[in-house]
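User: Reviewer 2 asked us to show a designed sequence for the structure in our supplementary figure. I'm pasting the structure tokens here. Could you produce the per-position amino acids so we can include them in the response letter?
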């Protein structure tokens, strides 16, 4: 996939996309022939520019592309920042076929401020989750993808860097989608670690991978408890990546941002076995860790100015004779004891060890963890908002703002003092789930549990359970994994 620029229209473009506004009859830097075609449609009342409206013209292909699609974006003054991304992607979905390999996009002066959103929409939709089909099904899925985007605008210098950033970012989102969708027999613990090695080698990051024997010596009892059901050969790892930009001051070096992502390769629920229609898609439980790997795939390429440390605890949550059980008491890395009330509340356990280890070792200025943690978050917020909780107003506000800017939305959930009391253990320091009322405010109670492992760090917890894997995708997404979180966290790191 590549992006090129052209100052004028040419006939080798398979289909040209032309955004237009309602009640606008002139567009600066539109080709005269293009203006004539557009005005002809308007005068014949075939096109008004209403949001989502479109009209395709077939030409002789001599001076203009053979196919030209005018797309309505509604009233210019009412256009929201998320509209261009969704409108252009929604239309592109209907145009993707084996004949449209080279896509043109006209950027009139009136649309320049939405350039990044338009390009992102087109590139995010240029993806297929079909990876394991064969024969004609595989061919059909892949042949619909386009290969080149030609931006038609006279000012390449103004947009080239933006286009490159959009390309790098969306390519990474697509990698994350594949990681999240990846079946556990293909994207297993070892494969996850190999992907981290590849990213680190390409970008020159410092990489540390703690193996099970290392975690045993370090007494990381929480992640090891979750791993026990995987059998003696069942792998568990703690992946640690460290990005330090060139020229960073000593003060900034000593105040990194810590990102922690849940890497549950597959979650059966353990002895609290997940039910039918709850277990089939549990390969998605590695989404938080996949997002962290995605962010690290971009940090150096986008020249992020902050030191960032990423930690991904990786294991499976399975069942055998050695699997951990409800009523057990385990000891976490930081020494706090945990009463196990539900083996399906495993994500918070592996995060507990990762958080306390990362905060102790790196003493971050800010800590952000990302996880598909609770079904309660899906019930509360659905599939358009992730939940956010934490202990620092500035950090939470900056993350919410980054989510608004990228349309990867966050909604703050309460952290009431009673949730902290409920999560206290009866026979241990804390318990990983409460009894009797666990269905009430489950997202907030999970955050209250994690709060026990962050020491004094400024911290935010993001529950992505509802937004990371969907049946009802946005126009630029696809069923299954969305890649949610990469663009939002990159925006946050650019601004913080």
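Assistant: Here is a per-position design you can include in the supplement:
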């Amino acid at each position: 996939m590549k992006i090129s620029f052209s100052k004028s229209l040419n006939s080798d473009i398979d289909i040209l996309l032309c955004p237009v506004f309602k009640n606008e009859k002139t567009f600066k830097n539109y080709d005269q022939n293009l203006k004539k075609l557009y005005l002809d449609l308007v005068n014949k009342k075939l096109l008004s520019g209403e949001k989502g409206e479109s009209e395709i013209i077939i030409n002789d292909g001599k001076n203009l592309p053979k196919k030209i699609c005018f797309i309505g974006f509604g009233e210019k003054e009412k256009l929201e920042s998320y509209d261009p991304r969704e409108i252009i992607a929604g239309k592109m979905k209907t145009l993707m076929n084996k004949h449209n390999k080279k896509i043109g996009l006209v950027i009139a002066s009136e649309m320049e401020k939405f350039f990044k959103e338009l390009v992102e929409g087109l590139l995010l939709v240029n993806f297929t989750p079909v990876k394991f089909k064969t024969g004609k099904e595989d061919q059909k899925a892949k042949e619909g993808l386009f290969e080149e985007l030609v931006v038609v605008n006279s000012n390449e210098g103004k947009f080239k860097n933006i286009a490159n950033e959009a390309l790098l970012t969306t390519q990474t989102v697509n990698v994350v989608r594949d990681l999240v969708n990846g079946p556990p027999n293909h994207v297993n613990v070892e494969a996850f670690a190999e992907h981290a090695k590849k990213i680190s080698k390409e970008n020159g990051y410092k990489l540390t991978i703690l193996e099970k024997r290392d975690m045993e010596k370090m007494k990381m009892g929480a992640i090891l408890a979750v791993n026990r059901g995987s059998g003696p050969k069942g792998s568990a790892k703690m992946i640690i990546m460290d990005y330090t930009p060139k020229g960073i001051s000593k003060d900034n070096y000593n105040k990194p941002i810590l990102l922690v992502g849940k890497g549950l390769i597959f979650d059966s629920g353990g002895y609290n076995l997940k039910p039918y229609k709850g277990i089939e898609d549990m390969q998605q439980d590695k989404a938080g860790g996949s997002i962290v790997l995605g962010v690290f795939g971009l940090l150096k390429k986008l020249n992020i100015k902050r030191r960032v440390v990423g930690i991904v605890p990786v294991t499976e949550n399975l069942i055998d004779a050695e699997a951990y059980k409800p009523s057990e008491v385990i000891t976490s890395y930081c020494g706090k004891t945990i009463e196990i009330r539900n083996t399906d509340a495993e994500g918070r356990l592996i995060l507990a060890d990762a958080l306390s280890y990362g905060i102790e070792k790196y003493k971050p200025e800010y800590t952000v963890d990302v996880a598909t943690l609770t079904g309660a978050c899906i019930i509360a917020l659905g599939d358009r908002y992730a939940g956010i909780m934490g202990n620092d107003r500035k950090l939470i506000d900056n993350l919410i703002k980054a989510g608004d800017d990228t349309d990867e939305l966050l909604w703050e959930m309460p952290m009431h003092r009673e949730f902290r009391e409920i999560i206290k253990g009866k026979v241990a320091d804390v318990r990983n789930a409460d009894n009797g009322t666990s269905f009430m405010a489950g997202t907030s109670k999970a955050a209250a549990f994690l709060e026990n492992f962050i020491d004094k760090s400024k911290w935010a917890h993001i529950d992505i359970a509802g937004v990371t894997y969907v049946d009802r995708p946005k126009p630029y997404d696809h069923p299954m994994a969305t890649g949610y979180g990469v663009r939002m966290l990159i925006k946050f790191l650019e601004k913080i």
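For the response letter, you might also mention the following. Residues 2-153 form a domain with the Leucine Aminopeptidase, subunit E; domain 1 fold (CATH 3.40.220.10). The longest helix spans residues 156-181.
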